[in-house]
Amino acid sequence: MLDGQRRDRLRKAVAECLRAPRATGWAEAMCVAAVAALGSVDAAALTLRTDSHGEEMIGASEPWAARLEETQYTLGEGPGVEAFGTGGPVLVADIRVEQARWPGFADAASASGAAAMFAFPLQIGGIRLGTLDLYRRLVGGLSSAELGDASVLAELATLALLEDAERTGPDDLHAVISYQDVNVATGMLAVYLRVSLEDAFSRLRAHAYATDTPILELARDVLARRIPLDRLVD
Question: What topology does CATH give the domain 2-177?
Answer without folding.
Answer: Beta-Lactamase (3.30.450)
